[in-house]
Task: inverse folding
């Protein structure tokens, strides 16, 4: 029994759970005070805990800003409490604002598949549930084809030992997550999950793709 309690405690520390009290549905939803520069584009991805994914994309050159949020489901104006139930249909996702003159959508797709395991259904690392599933969102036929073509390359090259289960989904609506989730890894470096999961995941990505990193990253 003592061993079981210890294992459960360690598991809790290593999952994407914030110690900050989540907003209730009656409270005001947060929106970023950020002006997107002319010529910038947006891309959307879900690949596990958004704290990790946000930090990874913010390290990529050509990316101006990244926001954590929810997408892919049916619940309107979801909050973190609702997302945690796994019944909203949404996944933890990120909005990537990028300069297409410096980084292409195809490269962002490469970052997506190169920074998580797209073969695990409803799970990423220690986090499990439909809210952590793998989704590559598209906003145009061109983006959809880029995602599909890249998956074909990965499958033909046998880059993964198991079948890719990533959803290719038309973006319907992106809902921004509560403010305390934004830049969470940067603002909470001593959080157990950040130290044990987020930072190692970011460092692994940096080691594999040094040519994609911003000079100051």
Result:
């Amino acid at each position: 029994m003592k061993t079981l309690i210890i294992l459960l405690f360690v598991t809790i520390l290593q999952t994407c759970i914030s110690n900050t009290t989540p907003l209730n549905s009656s409270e005001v939803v947060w929106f970023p005070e950020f002006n997107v520069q002319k010529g910038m584009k947006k891309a959307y991805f879900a690949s596990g805990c958004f704290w990790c994914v946000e930090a990874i994309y913010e390290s990529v050159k050509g990316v101006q800003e990244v926001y954590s949020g929810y997408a892919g489901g049916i619940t309107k104006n979801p909050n973190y409490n609702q997302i945690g139930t796994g019944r909203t249909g949404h996944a933890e996702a990120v909005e990537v604002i990028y300069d297409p003159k410096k980084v292409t959508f195809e490269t962002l797709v490469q970052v997506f598949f190169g920074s998580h395991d797209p073969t695990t259904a409803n799970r990423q690392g220690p986090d499990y549930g439909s809210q952590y599933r793998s989704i590559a969102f598209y906003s145009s036929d061109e983006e959809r084809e880029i995602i599909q073509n890249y998956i074909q390359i990965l499958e033909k090259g046998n880059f993964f030992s198991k079948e890719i289960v990533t959803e290719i989904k038309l973006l319907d609506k992106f809902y921004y997550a509560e403010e305390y989730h934004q830049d969470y890894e940067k603002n909470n470096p001593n959080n157990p999950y950040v130290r044990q999961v987020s930072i190692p995941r970011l460092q692994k990505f940096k080691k594999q793709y040094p040519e994609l990193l911003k000079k100051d990253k």
User: Anything to note?
Assistant: The beta strands are 41-47, 63-71, 91-98, 123-124, 127-128, 134-138, 167-170, 174-176. The helical segments are 2-13, 50-58, 80-83, 105-114, 141-156, 184-187, 192-208. The chain has a mean pLDDT of 89.
